[in-house]
Write a sequence for this structure.
């Protein structure tokens, strides 16, 4: 008896077509088109997960810079980070941005401490 791969192929196709759910036109129900679309979508998703980290870092830097300049317009973000390092204050940008938004008094205290030692 000749063996066929019908069940395996159908399963593989259905799995890929499930990933293409929500795509438009033939990209959602034609296997070859959906294979291309899903592969490209996964490439974009992978790259997007990497880019998201840089986007958040930019956001944190912008928030820290705005908070620093609201306290002293002549004081810059880069000087603040340099003073933090010289004062051995080991807070990352995410935490500093969170403090700048939610606990401005604490952020001001940290800034003054870093400024005195720097």
């Amino acid at each position: 008896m000749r063996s066929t791969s019908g069940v395996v192929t159908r399963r593989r196709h259905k799995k890929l077509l499930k990933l293409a759910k929500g795509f438009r036109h033939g990209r959602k129900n034609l296997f070859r088109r959906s294979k291309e679309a899903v592969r490209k979508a996964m490439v974009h998703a992978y790259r997007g997960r990497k880019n998201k980290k840089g986007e958040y870092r930019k956001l944190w830097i912008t928030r820290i810079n705005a908070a620093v300049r609201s306290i002293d317009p002549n004081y810059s973000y880069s000087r603040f980070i340099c003073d933090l390092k010289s004062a051995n204050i080991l807070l990352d940008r995410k935490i500093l941005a969170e403090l700048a938004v939610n606990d401005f008094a604490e952020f001001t205290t940290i800034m003054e401490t870093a400024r005195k030692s720097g």
The CA atoms of residues 27 and 34 lie 4 Å apart.
